[in-house]
């Protein structure tokens, strides 16, 4: 585990941090392969919805659904590794707005006065590779099991596949979600966390989805992979909370590296930096050790170590990868049950994930 003191960081870290710096300088290449962020994952009916889902939901109607989706995710990951974090992030954004119902996949109708979720300002950075993964998987599943499997379930399965493909745990996915009929950009802002959200704000949001304190910390661990644009952490580097100085909770070496890539004014808007400066391409538990070493990229990430309520969980997850993996699988199942739609009154089974039936 990395030390929380920058002066006592191991020598091996220096090379890792330098590697992180190189990543931000090579942004023109990176942004074509890796995502720019991975946001954290509504109601108290989550447990009720959870009981409506099952592992064998398609056992009779489409028993090969997971193998079909896996054939797509495996190929996508080989061709475009960005598809991994992009699809995981897409699942988070779907579940936190209107529930896990595939509403984030809907495209805005031409001439419509109301934009769909995917066109909301907060979703503008969602990578195309995430949407492409679902589209390809849906087409393959439809060719074998027409009109049976929802887009929402395909997204949930694909997200799990990519967690595993990037080095994380393989866990069973409960299925039975129907696709939602509502997709509105106006519903996105109040349902997604901000890069500078406080722990109180995060807890309020997560609680509104039926998730607890541990779920907040564990699901935030998805930031073990992925990247964020400078705009999401620029305030920490130059004018933290109006202080005209940097966030005191950021390691001095990381601060220097990030300032080199993200100037206060006039910087390249396409520049990104990794959430995890030590193992940015691997799904592991290094994210938590980074927080203890003041190496969190976003203010909302570092806040998890600074707050006495969440610090013990950060420390626990940072000690043992298997413990984090086990907790992450449980938390993803809980998140995957948020706002589940069932039946034709509330949902549909779209053949084209981008268009309502």
TrEMBL record:
Family of the protein in this entry: Belongs to the peroxidase family. Classical plant (class III) peroxidase subfamily. Belongs to the peroxidase family. Ascorbate peroxidase subfamily.
Chain segments annotated as transmembrane: 12-30
One record GO biological process: hydrogen peroxide catabolic process
Disulfide bonds: 62-145, 95-100, 151-353, 230-262
Keywords, in A-Z order: Calcium, Disulfide bond, Heme, Hydrogen peroxide, Iron, Membrane, Metal-binding, Oxidoreductase, Peroxidase, Secreted, Transmembrane, Transmembrane helix
Residues given in the record as heme b binding sites: 223
Recorded catalytic activity of this chain's protein: 2 a phenolic donor + H2O2 = 2 a phenolic radical donor + 2 H2O
Positions that bind Ca(2+) 2: 224, 276, 279, 284
Superkingdom: Eukaryota
Function: Removal of H(2)O(2), oxidation of toxic reductants, biosynthesis and degradation of lignin, suberization, auxin catabolism, response to environmental stresses such as wounding, pathogen attack and oxidative stress. These functions might be dependent on each isozyme/isoform in each plant tissue.
Protein name: Peroxidase
Gene Ontology CC terms: extracellular region
Site feature location: Transition state stabilizer: 89
Binding site for Ca(2+) 1: 94, 97, 99, 101, 103, 117
Pfam families: peroxidase
Cofactor note: Binds 2 calcium ions per subunit.
Molecular function, one GO term: lactoperoxidase activity
Active site: 93 (proton acceptor)
Localization per Swiss-Prot or TrEMBL: Secreted
